[in-house]
Amino acid sequence: ADGRYLRRPVRKGDERLKLKSAPPSTKFRILPERVAAHKRADILAAFETAGILVRFLPRYSPDLSPIEPGWAKLKGILRAKEARTVNALNEELGPALNAITATDAKAWFKLCGYPNLN
């Protein structure tokens, strides 16, 4: 509630739910995942009272995840090397991971709709 990450579950009556009101000119937002624990009425009411805008993240979509093209490239390289045993996989995994470049990663973020990364 004070800008620190909440590392333990929030329980009813928890001091962390007593949020300080934000100045009207300040725009605070949180983007929780769509899980039941994040939709509790007491928590949402505390955020609203403090002037914090809650917008839930969209449901998971592989089309919006830059890790998916990364896994696809890695699996493609390992398939091409025919790494079908544990020993072969151990031997080929390092070079396959090294084949993924920063340019690849930037392109995957762009592909998934993220803003330009410098």
Structure description:
There is one protein chain. The longest helix has 14 residues, at 67-80. With 118 residues, this protein is mainly α. The chain starts with 27 loop residues before the first strand and ends in a 7-residue tail after the last helix. The chain has helices spanning 41-49, 67-80, 86-98, 102-111, and strands spanning 28-30, 52-54. A two-stranded parallel sheet has the order 1-2. It is built from four helices and two strands; from the N terminus they run βαβααα. The model is unreliable at 1-6 (pLDDT under 50). 0% of the residues are buried.
Can I get a quick summary?
With 118 residues, this protein is mostly helical. It contains 4 helices and 2 strands.
Topology:
Blueprint: E1 28-30, H1 41-49, E2 52-54, H2 67-80, H3 86-98, H4 102-111
Parallel strand pairs: 1-2
Structural class: mainly alpha
| Number of helical stretches of at least 4 residues | 4
Low-confidence runs (pLDDT<50, min 5 residues)?
1-6
| Span between termini | 31 Å
Total E-strand runs: 2
Strand content: 5-15%
Share of residues in helices: 25-40%
Strand line-up across the major sheet = 1-2
Largest sheet: 2 strands, parallel
Q: Mean of the pLDDT scores?
A: 77
The helix-strand sequence is EHEHHH
- What's the shape? elongated
Please give the radius of gyration in angstroms.
21 Å
Question: Notable features of this structure?
Answer:
118 residues; mainly alpha; two-stranded parallel sheet; 4 helices; 2 strands; elongated
